[in-house]
Write a structure and sequence with these properties.
Order of helices and strands: EEHE
Helix content: under 10%
Strand content: 25-35%
Radius of gyration: 14 Å
Number of strands: 3
Largest sheet: 3 strands, antiparallel
Number of helices: 1
Shape: elongated
Length: about 55
């Protein structure tokens, strides 16, 4: 299950929330710090690790 980062627009808290891909479009997690529902998804960079073949 993927983990997504969110930022609360009310208090600025950045937190992670695990959700299925099907849930992600409709997910509205609450801020764990202040309980606000005004949270925006924060795009996160990722690095794909591959094996180097010689």
């Amino acid at each position: 299950m993927p983990t997504y980062q969110y930022r609360c627009e009310k208090c600025g808290e950045v937190f992670e929330h695990a959700e299925h891909l099907a849930e992600h479009a409709d997910a509205h997690p609450r801020c764990p710090k202040c309980g606000s529902e005004a949270c925006q998804h924060v795009p996160t960079p990722f690095v794909a690790m591959t094996t180097k073949k010689s």
